[in-house]
Amino acid sequence: MGRAELTTWKLTENGESVLRRVSLLGSSPYVATDHDAIRAAVVSCATLVEAHVDKVIKSLFTADAAMSFPLARVLHAEVEDSIFRTWEARRKWLASAFGINISGDKAAQEFDAVVGLRNSIVHGDGRLTDLQVGSLKDLFRWKEQFTRVLSVQMSGRTIILTPEVAVKSAIISRDFVLHFDGVLIEAFPTIAVRAS
Description:
Elements: H1 13-27, H2 35-63, H3 70-83, H4 87-98, H5 106-124, H6 136-150, E1 153-155, E2 158-160, H7 165-187
Antiparallel strand pairs: 1-2
Helix pairs in contact: 1-2, 1-7, 2-4, 2-5, 2-7, 5-6, 5-7
């Protein structure tokens, strides 16, 4: 019998910490039966990963040699809030400023469903928000994505959380962090993103 190959993941210290926390959220015995626990798990998964990506972006700016120039620091201070306002802005800054392109990747697309569901829970009280249904195309895209990726059931704009939703949110969040940190470390092998 041959030796089993071990997979070595490229993770930041903070990424590893986020993975541990996300794993716990997906493995709680209550997340399969308690509606509020499912909601809390989805919101927590999306928020933990979002905070991790924000921390990475801040670390990249801090480590960049251009930040030693006063002009760069002033310009950065001017736009800093906009960097973290949306996922689209985060992806744009990661790609244009640091060459880290995660848009369109399977892990990123599936994680978008977790973020979208989190937004529906937090901003829509369990319904697709007006922003999410700005067009008929958006309505159908979110419904399809929630159903296919997270096993959510839909009734009109109302989201019905199934027992699988929390576990799937945790798995997708885990996969995104593994992918994101791998791409990050490939591009910036010496980047240090410390756990809080």
